């Protein structure tokens, strides 16, 4: 907990009354992630509504050496928005304006607090011919938060969500406002594109206040195909083959336990958009033909009826945003879960799938076990692992943590890296890097945030640190 309290009074004087909150129930809400893992300490919650207010908070924080943790939807399952060293939690939810949409260049400028649900509704009402890549997250998740963290979504053929960022506006550690390729007057378009300094840095390099993002055409008809995969050793080749034809919108692989046999059922789900049902059926035939020679050789990739999925799951599949993630999170009926995302090379998919199923059997997990999403045109994949636990049952919690530790080890051994790693996983990654790479990362954070104001404790490392919990 930050001991110096004089800055709190200055903060109250500098900002409107409905902006600063201390010693309230809000402090508890912001002290932990929805997954119920690490608990942090919060001195003050600030909910600004303008960039100027953000700058004022940063100015005071720098003067008094108070850490700031910026948050959007507060939905990170890996503790990235839980304070490590107390201080200020800055919730950007009130900065929720959609400032412009250009239907010809297919771009939009939005503030950091714009939510997924808000953006969906706005485009459907005002620009029904346009869409953006929607993450598998609740409607209260922010578009900005998912994009700056290399999220993925329903338009995975175009890459990770960070690839869909065109420009960024940021408040830096000296409270200055920095605009990079926001398209206002062309002046910020000159020189190298260094917006990458604010992608995947977990808020360590500045507070993002606006984004300029890509939009995409919305076709009139959207549906999906489901194939049953009999040979998991060919999963990487299946993804490569499916993405090679250029027709897909999104590709998912997932495994679920069959009720009667208790054996894993591996399914391939291909989302397509089309002009109408006839156009969709033509594309469906392309994929049936695509796998016909595989089936003749006994590899088995068979088109199956959608009702192979549970009815509630099936009902949600075409919803944007999707619902139903709460079923997986609360499978143990205790409201806790531990989540892992991993960016993996394509050729690691079969081995990850086999190892993941072994871990699930070992610790008694069932239902949808793992989801693998293609990113780009087969360039890489992101895997999603979620182990639920009952918060009131220490043994249940411990088993989930043991299972996740093994899953992390598998991802690292197969050449992958954790997505949205917590502070301990970050330290493991830094410890495993060569010295030059690690020194460059630490050097960037030192230049961009010399006083360690922004999300202090993330991307930090000291000699001998191996990422073990304290």
Automatic annotation (TrEMBL):
<dbReference type="InterPro" id="IPR016166">
    <property type="entry name" value="FAD-bd_PCMH"/>
</dbReference>
<dbReference type="GO" id="GO:0016491">
    <property type="term" value="F:oxidoreductase activity"/>
</dbReference>
<feature type="domain" description="FAD-binding PCMH-type">
    <location>
        <begin position="38"/>
        <end position="218"/>
    </location>
</feature>
<keyword id="KW-0285">Flavoprotein</keyword>
<dbReference type="GO" id="GO:0071949">
    <property type="term" value="F:FAD binding"/>
</dbReference>
<protein>
    <recommendedName>
        <fullName>FAD-binding PCMH-type domain-containing protein</fullName>
    </recommendedName>
</protein>
<keyword id="KW-0560">Oxidoreductase</keyword>
<dbReference type="Pfam" id="PF01565">
    <property type="entry name" value="FAD_binding_4"/>
</dbReference>
<dbReference type="InterPro" id="IPR016169">
    <property type="entry name" value="FAD-bd_PCMH_sub2"/>
</dbReference>
<keyword id="KW-0274">FAD</keyword>
<dbReference type="InterPro" id="IPR016164">
    <property type="entry name" value="FAD-linked_Oxase-like_C"/>
</dbReference>
<dbReference type="InterPro" id="IPR036318">
    <property type="entry name" value="FAD-bd_PCMH-like_sf"/>
</dbReference>
<dbReference type="InterPro" id="IPR006094">
    <property type="entry name" value="Oxid_FAD_bind_N"/>
</dbReference>
């Amino acid at each position: 907990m930050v001991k110096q309290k004089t800055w709190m009074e200055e903060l109250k004087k500098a900002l409107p009354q409905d902006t600063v909150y201390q010693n309230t129930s809000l402090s508890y809400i912001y002290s932990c992630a929805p997954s119920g893992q690490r608990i942090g300490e919060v001195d003050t919650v600030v909910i600004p509504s303008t960039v100027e207010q953000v700058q004022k908070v940063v100015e005071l924080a720098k003067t008094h050496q108070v850490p700031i943790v910026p948050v959007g939807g507060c939905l990170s399952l890996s503790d990235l928005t839980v304070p490590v060293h107390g201080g200020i939690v800055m919730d950007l939810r009130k900065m929720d304006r959609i400032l412009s949409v250009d239907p010809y260049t297919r771009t939009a400028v939005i503030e950091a607090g714009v939510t997924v649900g808000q953006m969906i509704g706005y485009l459907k009402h005002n620009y029904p011919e346009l869409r953006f890549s929607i993450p598998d997250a609740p409607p209260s998740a922010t578009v900005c938060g998912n994009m700056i963290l290399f999220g993925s979504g329903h338009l995975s053929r175009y890459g990770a969500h960070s690839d869909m960022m065109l420009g960024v506006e940021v408040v830096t550690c000296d409270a200055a406002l920095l605009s990079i390729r926001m398209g206002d007057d062309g002046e910020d378009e000159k020189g190298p594109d260094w917006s990458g300094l604010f992608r995947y840095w977990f808020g360590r390099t500045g507070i993002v206040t606006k984004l300029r993002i890509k939009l995409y055409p919305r076709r009139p008809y959207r549906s999906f195909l489901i194939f049953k995969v009999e040979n998991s050793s060919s999963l990487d080749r299946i993804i490569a083959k499916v993405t090679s034809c250029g027709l897909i919108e999104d590709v998912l692989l997932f495994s679920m336990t069959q009720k009667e046999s208790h054996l894993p059922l591996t399914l391939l789900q291909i989302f397509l958009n089309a002009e109408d049902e006839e156009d969709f059926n033509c594309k469906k035939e392309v994929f049936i033909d695509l796998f016909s020679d595989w089936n003749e050789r006994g590899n088995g990739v068979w088109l199956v009826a959608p009702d192979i999925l549970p009815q509630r799951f099936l009902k949600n599949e075409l919803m944007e945003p999707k619902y139903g993630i709460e079923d997986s999170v609360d499978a143990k009926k205790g409201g806790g879960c531990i989540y892992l995302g991993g960016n993996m090379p394509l050729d690691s998919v079969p081995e990850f799938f086999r190892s993941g199923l072994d871990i699930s059997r070992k610790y008694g997990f069932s239902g949808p076990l793992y989801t693998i999403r293609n990113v780009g045109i087969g360039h890489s994949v992101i895997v999603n692992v979620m182990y639920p636990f009952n918060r009131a049952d220490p043994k249940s919690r411990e088993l989930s943590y043991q299972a996740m530790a093994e899953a992390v080890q598998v991802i690292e051994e197969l050449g992958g890296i954790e997505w949205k790693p917590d502070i301990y996983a970050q330290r493991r990654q830094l410890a495993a890097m060569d010295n030059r790479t690690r020194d460059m990362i630490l050097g960037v954070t030192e230049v961009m945030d010399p006083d360690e104001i922004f999300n202090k404790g993330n991307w930090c490392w000291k000699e001998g640190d191996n990422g073990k919990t304290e």
